[in-house]
Structures are given as C-alpha cells and as structure tokens.
Design a protein that fits this description.
Layout lengths: L1 H8 L9 H26 L4 H47 L1 H14 L4 H25 L9 H25 L5 H24 L3 H29 L1
Helix pairs in contact: 2-3, 2-6, 2-7, 2-8, 3-4, 3-5, 3-6, 4-5, 6-7, 7-8
Length: 235
C-alpha cells in the first residue's frame, strides 16, 4: 500500500505527453491570428469595409479547411511510415529474434549500460513485449508521440478558427478610421498571449516564445499592409 501511494505521489506529467495535439493547436491558432490579421490589414489598406469583412470571413473558412487538410495529410503520411516500420520490425522479430535481441542490447550499450546488463534488460523487455520494446527504443514510436491524423486535423482547424475570429471581430466593432491600428495592436497582443500560453503548456521559456511570435507577426502584417497600400494607390 505504501509503495502504491508513493507511486501515485510521484506520478509525473511531461510536456511530451501533449505533443500530439499541442503542436497542431499552436500552429493553427498562430496561423489563424496572423494570416487573417495580415489579410485584413492588407485589404483595409486598399478596400472598403464590406470587402474587408468578406475577405476576413473567406480567409477564416478557407484557412481552417486548408489547415485541417494539410495536417491530416501530413500526419497520415507519418502514420503510414510508422505502420510500415512497425510491420517490418514485426517480420524481423519473427525471422531473426536473436539478431533483434543483439540490436536492442546494442542500443542500451550506446546509452551507457554495460554489455551484460544491456543484454539482460533487452532480454527481459523482449520477453514481455518484444515489438513494443523495439518500437520505443529503436524506432522512437511511443503512445505519447504516435501520429493521430484526425486529432491533429481537428485541433488545427478548430484553433485556426478561434485565432482567426479574434481579428475578424475587430472588423465588426472597430471604426473604419482606426481599423488597421486596432487589428495590428490587438493581433500582436493575441500572438504574444498565444506564444506565452504555448510555451507554458510545453514547458519552454515564456518571454522568449512571446517575443519571437510577436516579432514575426509584426513583420508579416507590415509587409501585407505595404502591399495593400501600394495596390490601393495604383487602383
């Protein structure tokens, strides 16, 4: 009982456990804020209020679908590769279990175990779950990092829509005269908050992440604003 209680107290939650959805969610929200804000700023520099709103809504819908499709396709490719590697490893374990034992032991030797201990560890792990041991220690595949295409697609599309809705809301409430400034300032604040939250969730330095995402957001909006202004002057 005492050991069980100690185990419960010692239970740890690592940032790597969230990698499956955190990367897609952060990417989606960042892209939603940045691409929609940049689109709005660019159109606002050259167009009317109605055209700004239409462009923003179109950007939200198209961007969310694009993010979902892109994540699903890319993560599905990763999942296909993982399944192919796992199938090959299963065949090798059936055809040459002795060689696979030596291979696993060699991995542990490279990590610092002596040869005898490495062989004993490899032998015990393979007796319990040979394929799982090779997936984890040879292929680097684990439950925390395995590819989940649907989860990644939903996280990316949902977070993109939420991120895009923030600057789009300003198009509705902000006066046309101050729209560009309002969208730029608010979006940079949103990006800084997103960078801080993502860094906190991932266990990374908060200030560094916030400054990094804010800098690139400001650069992107400045470029699109300049293109929009130049286009408006020529029309």
């Amino acid at each position: 009982m005492g050991f069980a209680r100690a185990n419960r107290r010692h239970a740890e939650h690592h940032a790597v456990d969230r990698l499956g959805w955190l990367r897609a969610a952060v990417l989606g929200a960042n892209d939603g804020i940045l691409s929609t804000a940049s689109l709005i700023v660019g159109v606002a520099a050259a167009g009317t209020h109605a055209s700004i709103l239409i462009a923003g809504v179109s950007g939200l819908v198209a961007g969310a679908m694009s993010m979902a499709a892109g994540e699903y396709v890319s993560v599905s490719s990763q999942a296909d590769s993982e399944r192919a590697d796992t199938a090959r490893e299963r065949r090798e374990l059936q055809d040459n279990p002795g060689g696979e034992l030596e291979e696993l032991a060699g991995i542990y030797v490279k990590r610092g175990l002596d040869d005898d201990l490495a062989h004993r560890v490899a032998s015990q792990l393979m007796e319990r779950d040979a394929l799982g041991a090779h997936e984890r220690d040879e292929l680097g595949i684990s439950a925390a990092t395995t590819a989940r295409p649907v989860q990644a697609a939903l996280a990316s599309a949902g977070s993109f829509s939420i991120g895009a809705a923030l600057p789009l809301l300003l198009v509705v409430v902000a006066p046309v005269q101050t729209l560009i400034a309002a969208v730029c300032i608010a979006s940079l604040v949103f990006l800084a908050v997103l960078g801080a939250v993502a860094a906190k969730a991932g266990g990374a330095p908060i200030l560094k992440a916030a400054v990094r995402v804010t800098f690139w957001g400001a650069l992107a909006m400045a470029v699109t604003a300049g293109i929009g202004a130049a286009s408006g002057n020529r029309l």
